[in-house]
Specification:
Strands 1, 3, 5, 6, 7 and 8 form a six-stranded mixed sheet that branches. This protein has a five-stranded antiparallel sheet with strand order 15-14-20-19-18, sandwiched between helices. A three-stranded antiparallel sheet has the order 9-11-12. Helix 9 crosses helix 15 (495-511). It is elongated, with a radius of gyration of 34 Å. It contains 18 helices and 20 strands. The longest helix has 17 residues, at 495-511. It starts with a strand and ends with a helix. It has 580 residues and is of the alpha+beta class. It is 28% helix and 20% strand.
Length: 580
């Protein structure tokens, strides 16, 4: 920045300028400035010496004209030298007073010592390049018992104050380190939670390079359980945005809710962290199959779990953007929601597998005309509820809307299937949403549209609940590790309803919309297909949820078509290899 420089704050105080007149240069550019206990090439002089010898930073007499224009090389060298002397010597207030922004410089230079843990520092200026002066930094950083040398290069700019003609340092955080931007500071400590070595239920290491879908899952478990697993956090120097001191926990890590920084950058590693071992419910064999399955369809996501216990065996994503759709997605599930709706209707006595049930081609409700999915919208004349369920007849469910209260589906989803409760899986998850709605939106909810939102985790749990007859909260980390409380459903499905629901799902897998996908599987197999309409998409999202023996799984593939055709084969791969 050449030429005159306008102060960003009011000019330096008279006392600060008076202090600066007591600083003088006694050697030329290129000498080192050592800080901590003493001075090297540059030193502070007494009042008599300064006044008798004159000083490049002395304010001009009132009768002298105010200097203008950019500082010359000698002025730049002397100003830089005096500033670096004060900084290196720990005279933070004096160094800050030599800048054009004393308040900001004082806060930043104080943070350099206190937050970054920089102790002894040696600053060596190079020859000025115009008004800019490069310098090298040879420092020592410490945090508790860890100490490490730190060297790097930086630069500063010398400018002239328009009003007084004084030369001063143009203050920017980048003076302290070139990686610092405006509003950022350096920090030393445990930047992240202790690392973990995640293993499956049998002790097999779960390497994210081998199982890429587990990268966000293991990261989430590390954040929560790194310390509990016995690991030790690494100590680093990094950049972050400046914020109040209480934005970090006792270990020095940023509190999650206060994470307002941009992308932090590690500048120095004092010591690497040591991982602790964390046993999970995952099964490396099932995970391998799930990874291969979702790789067949772009954007696919899948979850597999044990209905008898709630243990999650596999989590797989092929989203390509790093988002964990399998556990955190919030998507309309389409007709897979009919598993919950069917259980509600049967609990209320509004439907039974062998009972006659309407499935017209069209059904008007709330000013909308609903029809069944397919190139040729179908109807089932004189059919049963089992026939409507296996064919996924939309109007069979919409026709029941007029007999329901607005919150009936919400209560069934929450109180029997655990949807929307606060699941404690061990990582961050979206646990489903079935809001209370009215009119057309309530009718749409019955078929998995409207405001209903799910993901493969919640839909795998729906099949697991149907198979077991009771909700078992899914989880990835054993409860014993931290004693957290699992979510429990307020009530259990009526035994007769549970038996009928399994009959409906098993019929769907045998000769209904899921038959092609489930063909060839033996044992107790139940399934439900889904195709969810999403605004702005040419095709529907494909959904599929199923169980085989003590294994339940669900998958979704976006913007592709029918669930039985595109999501079903992915679920079948997992059930065929590990169910039964």
């Amino acid at each position: 920045m050449a030429g005159s420089h306008r102060r960003r704050h009011a000019g330096s105080s008279a006392s600060t300028r008076a202090t600066r007149t007591r600083i003088a240069v006694i050697v030329g550019v290129g000498a080192a400035v050592v800080g901590a206990a003493g001075f090297g090439a540059y030193s502070l002089l007494g009042d008599d010496e300064a006044e008798s010898g004159g000083n490049a930073l002395s304010a001009p007499a009132s009768s002298d004209p105010v200097k203008t224009g950019p500082p010359g090389p000698k002025e730049a060298a002397r100003a830089a030298g005096d500033f670096l002397t004060a900084w290196a010597g720990g005279r933070t207030e004096i160094a800050a007073g030599m800048t054009d922004d004393r308040k900001a410089a004082l806060a930043d230079l104080t943070s350099y010592r206190e937050d970054a843990g920089v102790g002894t520092v040696k600053l060596t200026p190079g020859p000025p390049k115009g008004t800019k002066v490069p310098f090298s930094v040879d420092a020592e950083v410490s945090f508790k018992d860890y100490v490490k040398p730190w060297t790097y290069n930086s630069a500063l700019e010398v400018v002239r104050d328009e009003k007084t003609g004084d030369v001063e340092i143009a203050w920017e955080p980048s003076v302290m380190h070139p990686k610092l931007a405006e509003g950022e500071r350096l920090r030393t400590g445990p930047r992240e939670a202790p690392p973990i070595k995640a293993v499956d239920r049998n002790g097999v290491k779960l390497d994210p390079e081998k199982y890429p879908s587990l990268t966000p899952v293991i990261a989430g478990m590390r954040e929560r359980y790194g310390a509990k697993a016995g690991g030790t956090a690494g100590v680093k120097v990094w950049t972050e945005s400046a914020e109040p001191a209480d934005a970090h926990d006792e270990g020095g890590r940023r509190k999650k809710d206060d994470d307002k920084a941009g992308t932090p950058e590690t500048l120095l590693v004092l010591t690497e962290g040591k991982p602790g071992t964390l046993r999970t419910t995952l099964d490396a064999r099932v995970q391998k199959t799930a990874e291969a399955a979702v790789a067949k369809q772009g954007g696919a996501a899948l979850v597999a779990m044990k209905p008898s216990t709630g243990e999650i065996l596999a989590v797989a994503n092929q989203t390509g953007n790093g988002f964990n759709t399998a556990l955190q997605g919030s998507l309309a599930p389409g007709s897979t929601m009919k598993v919950i709706t069917a259980s509600m209707l049967m609990d209320k006595g509004l439907a039974a597998p062998g009972k006659a049930h309407p499935c017209p081609r069209y059904k008007d409700y709330g000013g909308w005309k609903f029809e069944n999915v397919g190139d040729n919208s179908f109807t089932i004349q004189g059919g049963t509820f089992a026939e409507s369920f296996t064919a996924s007849c939309n109007t069979a469910f919409i026709s029941m809307a007029e007999k329901l209260e607005n919150d009936d589906l919400t209560k069934q989803a929450r109180d029997v299937f655990g949807i929307g409760l606060n699941w404690q899986t061990g990582v961050s998850t979206f646990d489903g949403a079935v809001p209370v709605q009215s009119g057309v939106e309530m009718a749409l909810s019955l078929i998995g549209q409207g405001g209903v939102r799910m993901n493969p985790l919640t839909m795998a749990s729906v099949s697991a609940t149907a198979k077991a007859g009771v909700f078992k909260q899914p989880y990835l980390v054993p409860q014993e590790l931290d004693g957290r409380q699992f979510a429990t459903a307020p009530r259990t499905m009526e035994p007769a309803t549970a038996q009928s629901l399994r009959e409906l799902m098993e019929a769907t897998a045998s000769y209904g919309t899921a038959a092609e996908a489930m063909s060839g599987l033996t044992g107790q197999v139940g399934a439900k297909t889904g195709s969810a309409e999403v605004g702005g998409q040419e095709e529907t999202d494909a959904w599929f949820t199923a169980y085989r023996g003590d294994l339940a799984a669900a998958a979704t593939v976006p913007n592709i078509g029918h669930g039985g055709e595109f999501a079903g084969p992915l679920v079948k791969d997992v059930l065929a290899a590990h169910g039964g």
